[in-house]
Amino acid sequence: MKVIASSLRKGNVVELEGRLYVVLTASNFHPGKGTPTTQIDMRRISDGVKVSERWRTTEQVEKATVDEREYDFLYEDGEGFHFMEPVSYDQIAVSADVVGDGKVYLGEGMRVFLKTYEGVAIAIEFPQKVTVEIIETEPVVKGQTASSSYKPATCTNGLRVMVPPHIGAGTRIVINTEDNSYVERAKD
Fold it and tell me: What whole-number distance in Å separates Cα of residue 3 and Cα of residue 102?
């Protein structure tokens, strides 16, 4: 299926010269003068090599048809990360290089979108927001204004996040998985 280059997003699978690539980052550049371009960083699925491509935003790119379904995270072991499809109970093992840095978000029973091509997992899409618990945070410095000051905090999964001064250890917060930014205090 052909799509224009500017419509590609993270996690899409592209076919170039008979090989499949998963999109890691996609950014569009619109210079004041000249042709708008789309810069795509991709990982070749067959051997994991990272590749950068630049296309005119209106150029046609072959988007591969992949199976995308919801899976629940079960556990991690020597084989990789194990997920289960909630309807058919089919299990699939996903290698660590497909999960990448997102492994810090994985919690038991978490629902993710897995993209598979011919039965092999090639990309994973995490929920946009994840709830984590703060285990350690720096004390508030007296005199700081609440509107602009954030302090570093460590979550139970090892992630470092900047949080507002009123957040303390033991508080559950919601973070954005795209940039690890604080969204709000958890409502549970």
Answer: 27
